[in-house]
Structure formats: structure tokens, C-alpha cells
Design a protein that fits this description.
The complex is a heterodimer of chains A (282) and B (259). Chain A contains 12 helices and 2 strands, in the order H-H-E-E-H-H-H-H-H-H-H-H-H-H. Chain A has 282 residues and is mainly alpha-helical. Chain A has a two-stranded antiparallel ribbon. In chain B, the strands form 2 sheets. In chain B, strands 1, 2, 3, 4, 6, 7, 8, 9 and 11 form a 9-stranded mixed β-sheet that branches. Chain B has a two-stranded parallel sheet with strand order 5-10. Chain B contains 9 helices and 11 strands. The model of chain B has no long low-confidence stretch (mean pLDDT 86). The chains are: A mainly alpha (282), B alpha/beta (259). The interface between A and B is medium-sized, with 29 and 31 residues.
Chain lengths: 282, 259
């Protein structure tokens, strides 16, 4: 009796595990099924490299949006990564237990703030400040980069911190025994040793930045043009899908699915990079 | 887990069948009005539930065609060809106002000037008056009923400027313009608030009265679309929408009644 119960539970758990994976497969299948015919019909290169997007005249090119996604993501990394890594170093190496006990949960709380709230803060506070002091429309790459930089902090900090703290104590002890200061130890021993973990954190943060939609729609202005300065307004691939999905029929709808395919490819490349990096560590 | 969801959703649908229900979807501009009127209607007919969803005019047309909803809502000057087989009932009119920041000294535009501003021929406020600075055009996204109507009525065959920024609702355009003194955009007249200034267009102020008189030209009808003849319940609700009571609510809330 007990044996059968065990078996049944095992099977149920297996079923649940597979259902989670099957959802991933269904999503992938569906996106590619809807997007690929369009891509092959119109030409992938044409789709990726044409800067004109005007569904009413059947012009579908997402070059501006790929650039938009890249600018915004790179910008987010410029703000988020130095802040995140220094914060992780402080928390892992310099902070005492009480401070760490207060800061860590607060950083994790940062991850729980809904993106629409970040977007709202961007629209109400950040965009007007940028417009007044730096010029341009305010709704810009810079605004999005700052907001996304903050949004990826929790990911970067917790993963970097964990990988620094997971290093064997002997590394640190050995370095200090050799006469290195604490900062030298961090810079020359701990950071290089935890490199792959930190990199994985950065890449995961990058995935979050490239996939973020709500906050980005609210603060980038969504203009369809090639951005030249960080003060320009851009549209990202995710915003393009979310903005127009509700209206799209026919080719337009297929073009949005094709945008999703490109986004999917981008994110897959990032995830493969994470797996590669983490594997090399082991 | 999944099984549980299936069971509970089946249970929910089972419950829903007992009361009669009407589903509406489409135009986000008309959605708040439809919700309000649906509430009034449900108070009078407690055995009827009305479910009002947004999604945009195109979605309203598509879902009405596929029979997923009882009534699709669309607010466009000209419905696309796909909507031809649908039965159309105009339930309200909605004017569109061109708006600027209240600090902007400009108070009127001619149709030619508006065309030039939105197509990118005029790029600096100094070309229109004493004010200086880059004009920042804010538009609705492609496919929006407001956008389609505005393009058709103001721009005609000319294209919107490539430098235009996009916001995805009347409310967000309004907030963007309220905070940026150099911007210009357009929203439904019902959404006007202090802080943004509606521009006099070709000598006519954008008010509901002027749309009704036929002298303000930028407006679009709000359609209720049904696949073939509406069902008995849907017909009753449409009749209610056309009644004096519903029309006076529409009028009081800032849209234009058809009566």
C-alpha cells in the first residue's frame, strides 16, 4: 500500500514537472508557428534591417526597435552593473551582520515592486527632470536606462553576492595572510574567483532589461526612429508588441509575432550564454 | 494544480450560465462609458450580467466577427472592410481635440497648420507664433480608433512625422502633454482637463456643442457592432443605449449624444 502511494505521488510530481515544460514548448511552438511564415515570406534580413514600420502601408521593419532594445539594455547595464556589483561586494565583504540583515531584504523588496510603479515614477519625476536639465523630450533612452538599471539591481546584487560568499574561506584567508589589504583581496582574489557567478547575474539582469515592457512603454516615448543620442525617444521590440497587439489583424499580427520570434532568439542567446558561463565555472 | 484550475473554471462557467450575460469588447475610449451604462442597466435588470472588456477598436471588430462577443465596440471615422458584414449601430459621437501644454501661447491652428505640424513640415513653434522650441508630436499607436480617425480627418493622405512619439491611451497622452510645454497631441474631448489647452481648429473651439452643430470637424462615431441581427438580450441593451436615459448619461460624462 505504502509502496503504491509512493509511486502515485512520484508520478503526479513528474506530471507537474512535465506540464511546466510543456507550457514552454507550447509557447515556443505557437510564437514560431505564427511568426515564421511571415519572416520567410518577407525575408528575415528585410525584416531586421528595414527601419520603416508602418502597418497601414504594410511596411514592417524592426531595425529601429532592435536598436532601441539594445540601447536601452546597454544603458541599463551601465547604470545597474557597477552599482549592483559594488553593493554586492559591500554586502558580502564589508557589511556587518546587522546591516546585511537590513539591506538584503530591502534589496529583495526592490524586486517585488511592480514595473508599472517604476514606469509611473519615470513618467512623473524622471522624465520632467531630464527634459528640464538635459533637454530633449524627457521620454528617452536615458530615462529608461536609469529606471531599468534600478530594476535589474536585485538580480545583479543577489547573484553576485551569493557567488562571492560561496567562495572558499581559504581564498580570503590566504590572501590576507600574504599581507594584502581587504580591498586588494576583493579586487585581486575574490572578484576574479567569483567572476563567472557575477557574469551570470549580469546576464540575467540583462535578460530582465531586454524583456521589460510596461515601464519601458511608459518612459521611452515609443518613437519609431533611429536613436542618435541617449536623449532620443525609442521603441523597443517588447513595447512594439504590447502597443499594437490589441489592434493587429492579418499581416500586422504576423509581423508582431515575428517581432516576438526575434525577441525570443535574442533572449535564447542570452540564456545560452548564462548556461555556458555557469558550466565553465564548474 | 492544472486539474484544479480546470475544475474551478468549469464550475465558474457553469454558474455564469444561470444568469443571462452579454459580453462587450473593443474601443478603449468608449469602455469607461460602456461600463457605467452597463452598471445602470444591470441595476434595472438584476438577472443580466454585462461584461465590458477593452482591447481596442480592431479587437472589437474581430471578436464581433468571430462571434466571441455579443457586441463589439469601435470608434473610427471609417470602419475597415472587414467590418462590412457586421450590423452597425451608432450609439454616440466623440470629438477629438488637438491639445498643447497650458503654458503654450498658441491657442489656435488652421487645418493646414495642423497638417504641417503633425506631418513634420513645421518643426519649431516659432513658425507658428512667438513661442520658440522644437515641436514634439505625441500620437496614439497605430491601430487606435482615435489615431485612425485623426489621421483621416486631419492628415488626409499625408503621413505622420517620423519623429512622433507614441502613447497608448488618451490618459497617457494627456499626462505627457501636461508635463511638456513643447508638446502637441490629440485626445478625446471627454478627456480634457485643466493643465492641457485644447486648440481652436479652423476658428472653431473643440466642444461637444460645436461637434453637434456640425461646425467642428474632428469627430468620430462610436459603433456597436453585432454579427448579423443582435440577439434578444443584446438588442435590449442596444435599445437601452439609444434611450433618452442612457444618452443623457453619455452627454453628462463628456461624450456627444446622438439625439
Amino acid at each position: 500500500m505504502k509502496y503504491y502511494l509512493e509511486k502515485i505521488i512520484e508520478k503526479i510530481i513528474m506530471l507537474i514537472a512535465f506540464s511546466a515544460i510543456s507550457i514552454l514548448i507550447i509557447i515556443t511552438f505557437f510564437i514560431f508557428k505564427e511568426g515564421c511564415p511571415f519572416l520567410f515570406k518577407n525575408g528575415i534580413l528585410n525584416f531586421i534591417l528595414s527601419p520603416a514600420w508602418d502597418p497601414s502601408t504594410k511596411e514592417f521593419g524592426i531595425f529601429t526597435m532592435i536598436l532601441g532594445s539594445l540601447w536601452v539594455t546597454v544603458g541599463a547595464l551601465i547604470f545597474g552593473v557597477p552599482l549592483g556589483i559594488s553593493c554586492a561586494i559591500y554586502l558580502a565583504e564589508f557589511a556587518d551582520k546587522t546591516i546585511r540583515g537590513v539591506l538584503k531584504p530591502m534589496i529583495e523588496l526592490l524586486a517585488g515592486i511592480p514595473s508599472v510603479v517604476y514606469g509611473f515614477i519615470g513618467v512623473m519625476i524622471l522624465a520632467p527632470i531630464i527634459r528640464t536639465y538635459l533637454g530633449g523630450p524627457g521620454f528617452s533612452i536615458l530615462a529608461a536606462a536609469i529606471i531599468l538599471g534600478i530594476m535589474i539591481l536585485p538580480t545583479v546584487i543577489s547573484i553576485s553576492m551569493d557567488s562571492i560568499m560561496a567562495l572558499p574561506r581559504t581564498y580570503k584567508e590566504g590572501s590576507i595572510a600574504l599581507g594584502a589589504t581587504r580591498w586588494q583581496t576583493v579586487k585581486m582574489v575574490l572578484l576574479p574567483a567569483a567572476r563567472s557567478g557575477i557574469l551570470a547575474g549580469v546576464i540575467l539582469g540583462m535578460g530582465r532589461a531586454i524583456g521589460e515592457t510596461m515601464a519601458v512603454i511608459m518612459i521611452t516615448g515609443n518613437a519609431i526612429k533611429i536613436p542618435f543620442t541617449p536623449l532620443d525617444s525609442v521603441r523597443t521590440m517588447t513595447s512594439n508588441i504590447a502597443l499594437e497587439m490589441g489592434y493587429a489583424i492579418g499581416d500586422h499580427r504576423a509581423a508582431l509575432f515575428a517581432t516576438a520570434v526575434m525577441l525570443f532568439v535574442f533572449i535564447m542567446i542570452l540564456n545560452t550564454m548564462v548556461i555556458f558561463v555557469v558550466k565553465r565555472k564548474n | 494544480m492544472l486539474l484544479l484550475i480546470f475544475i474551478s473554471s468549469g464550475f465558474l462557467f457553469g454558474c455564469a450560465r444561470k444568469t443571462q450575460s452579454i459580453v462587450l469588447a473593443g474601443s478603449t475610449a468608449f469602455q469607461p462609458f460602456a461600463e457605467k451604462l452597463a452598471e445602470v442597466y444591470m441595476e434595472k435588470h438584476p438577472n443580466v450580467t454585462i461584461d465590458v472588456q477593452g482591447g481596442g477598436s480592431a479587437l472589437g471588430i474581430m471578436t464581433a466577427l468571430q462571434g466571441i462577443v455579443d457586441i463589439g465596440m469601435a470608434d473610427m471615422v471609417k470602419l475597415p472592410k472587414e467590418a462590412d458584414p457586421l450590423t452597425k449601430t451608432i450609439v454616440a459621437m466623440d470629438g477629438i481635440a488637438i491639445i498643447v501644454n497650458e503654458k503654450n501661447s498658441i491657442s489656435k491652428l488652421t487645418s493646414i497648420e495642423a497638417q504641417k505640424v503633425f506631418s513634420g513640415d513645421i518643426t519649431d513653434w516659432s513658425q507658428l507664433g512667438p513661442k520658440k522650441g522644437n515641436i514634439r508630436v505625441i500620437s496614439r499607436e497605430d491601430g487606435s480608433g482615435t489615431r485612425k480617425s485623426f489621421d483621416k480627418l486631419v492628415l488626409g493622405k499625408i503621413k505622420l512625422t517620423k519623429n512622433a512619439m507614441y502613447q497608448d491611451s488618451n490618459g497617457t497622452i494627456r499626462e505627457a502633454i501636461k508635463s511638456d510645454p513643447n508638446s502637441i497631441g490629440y485626445i478625446s474631448i471627454g478627456f480634457l482637463i485643466p493643465g492641457v489647452k485644447p486648440l481652436v481648429f479652423d476658428g472653431v473651439a473643440p466642444t461637444n456643442e460645436n461637434v453637434k452643430k456640425g461646425i467642428y470637424k474632428i469627430f468620430r462615431p462610436v459603433y456597436f457592432l453585432t454579427n448579423g441581427e443582435p440577439g434578444r438580450l443584446a438588442q435590449k441593451f442596444i435599445n437601452f443605449m439609444l434611450s433618452d436615459e442612457a444618452q443623457s448619461i453619455i452627454k453628462k460624462d463628456g461624450l456627444i449624444s446622438i439625439k
